[in-house]
Design a protein that fits this description.
Blueprint lengths: L4 E11 L5 E12 L4 E5 L6 H9 L6 E6 L2 E2 L7 E4 L11 H11 L3 H14 L15 H14 L4 E5 L7 H18 L2 E5 L3 H7 L2 E5 L6 E6 L11 H16 L11
Parallel strand pairs: 3-8, 3-9, 6-7, 7-8
Antiparallel strand pairs: 1-2, 1-4, 4-5, 9-10
This protein binds adenosine-5'-triphosphate and magnesium ion.
């Protein structure tokens, strides 16, 4: 079964250095249908990474509950893959060893060796298997991080701006690869992006978050078939609608938005 994520009344607080409390998530409610592709979009610092980390079980919410297939999430698990905003590769391991690390930990590397090679090729890193992260560009490390998240075939893939460090052309190619993998492997995709076009191109639903304390402002259903034409009138209508919501979201109308 493909993962369904249900977020119920989730709030998360952090301590500021001055001792005050920072509300990173404020009563967030969202259901991500099994096998769907959603994008989270919203201003910097509004809690997107915090929400992904909570779904991953890397930090738990202080109030409310997040469920995967009706089970409360209390810790990380192989059913959820995570491609981090900063690639977060192990600097002392080669690219191949970084990508296969999780498979080795689960003792399934021998049977999945070919998958590792397949994903390395898919993200355009063939020939760099034995390179170390510091020898690669930011975009290459980000692609390695994506391959590492994909190779375990999780039920839910959490992508935190996975394509942010890529040039425009590589980025569009990777968007198509992500769609292909999503269809082929039937996963639920939850992706953070600052790129409205990327969100409309990829997603079944675009979830727009407000400036801190993060709440969900609106969920937009993207009712377009695939593949999508980036220049079509319908595409541009969704793009304009989302940009309008972002500009007028919440009380904080100053351009605290980094798109
Ligand atoms: N471990 C932490 N300790 C204290 N504060 C934190 C911690 N993690 C996040 N925060 C704060 O929570 C808020 C939300 O952070 P988060 O990283 O979720 O934002 P974001 O929406 O992912 O932003 P960006 O688009 O810039 O990546 C920020 O104000 C941040 O400073
Ligand atoms: Mg973030």
């Amino acid at each position: 079964m493909v993962g369904e994520i249900k977020i119920e009344n989730a709030s998360k607080y952090f301590n500021n250095p001055d001792g005050s409390i920072l509300t990173a998530l404020n009563d967030v409610n969202l259901t991500v249908r099994s096998g769907s592709f959603i994008s989270l979009i919203g201003p910097s610092g509004c809690g997107k990474t915090t929400l992904l980390r909570a779904i991953a079980g890397l930090n738990l919410v202080d109030e409310g509950t997040i469920y995967i297939d009706q089970e409360p999430i209390t810790k990380p698990g192989h059913d959820r893959g995570f491609a981090f905003q900063q690639a977060n590769l192990y600097p002392w391991l080669s690219i191949e060893k970084n990508i296969s690390f999780g498979l080795k930990a689960r003792r399934i590397y021998q049977s999945k060796k070919e998958d590792v090679a397949k994903y390395i090729e898919m993200v355009g890193l063939k020939g760099f298997e034995n390179a170390y992260p510091h020898q690669l560009s930011g975009g290459m490390n980000q692609r390695a991080s994506l391959a590492r998240a994909l190779v375990g075939h999780p039920k839910v893939l959490l992508l935190d701006e996975p394509l942010g460090a890529l040039d425009a052309f590589t980025r569009m190619n990777m968007q198509d690869e992500i769609l292909r993998i999503w269809k082929e492997h039937e996963m639920t995709m939850i992706m953070v992006t600052h790129d409205v076009d990327e969100a409309v191109y990829l997603s079944d639903q675009v979830v727009i978050m407000t400036p801190r304390p993060a709440k969900i402002e609106q969920v937009i259903d993207i009712e377009l078939g695939r593949p999508r034409a980036r220049g079509s009138n319908d595409f541009l209508k969704y793009r304009t609608k989302i940009l309008e919501i972002l500009n007028f979201a919440g009380e904080n109308k100053e351009p605290e938005y980094y798109l």
